[in-house]
Specification:
Strand content: under 5%
Distance between the termini: 28 Å
Oligomer: single chain
Largest sheet: none
Order of helices and strands: HHHH
Number of strands: 0
Length: 129
C-alpha cells in the first residue's frame, strides 16, 4: 500500500499523469511491477508455508499444494488490485483538492492491506477448503 501510494503521488507531482490515468505508460508500468512482485511473493510464501507444514508432519499432496498456491495468488492479486485502485483514485481526488496525498493514502492503504488481507484470505479459505 505504501509503495503504490507513494509512487503514484510522486508521478502526480512530477506531472507524469495527465488526462486519463489508465493511459499513462508510467502508471501501467507501476501496476505491472506491483502485480509481478505481489504474485512472486505469494508463490514464495505459499510454497514456504506448505514446506513448513510438511516438515511439521502434514501429508503432502499435489492437489492441496495447488490449492495453497492458488489461494495465496488469488488473495494477493485481489488485495493488490484493491490497493492500487484506492491509491490511484484517492490520490487523484486528494491531489485535486490541493492536499498532500501521501499524508492520507499511506495510512489508509496500510490499514486496508492489514484488514483486507485477513478478510480476503478467510473468505477464500472458506470457499476453497
Amino acid at each position: 500500500g505504501t509503495i503504490a501510494a507513494s509512487k503514484f503521488t510522486t508521478m502526480l507531482f512530477l506531472g507524469k499523469v495527465r488526462g486519463n490515468w489508465w493511459e499513462s505508460p508510467d502508471v501501467r508500468h507501476m501496476v505491472k511491477i506491483l502485480f509481478a512482485v505481489a504474485l512472486i511473493s505469494s508463490v514464495y510464501i505459499g510454497a514456504l508455508s506448505y514446506a513448513m507444514a510438511y516438515l511439521r508432519g502434514f501429508e503432502f499432496t499435489w492437489l492441496l499444494f495447488g490449492k495453497v498456491i492458488g489461494l495465496s495468488m488469488i488473495a494477493v492479486g485481489c488485495l493488490a488490485g484493491i490497493i492500487v485502485l484506492i491509491s490511484i483514485i484517492g490520490g487523484l481526488w486528494i491531489f485535486h483538492k490541493k492536499e498532500e496525498p501521501n499524508n492520507f493514502l499511506i495510512p489508509i492503504t496500510t490499514s486496508l492491506a492489514d484488514v483486507g488481507s485477513l478478510f480476503i484470505f478467510s473468505l477464500l479459505v472458506q470457499l476453497l477448503f
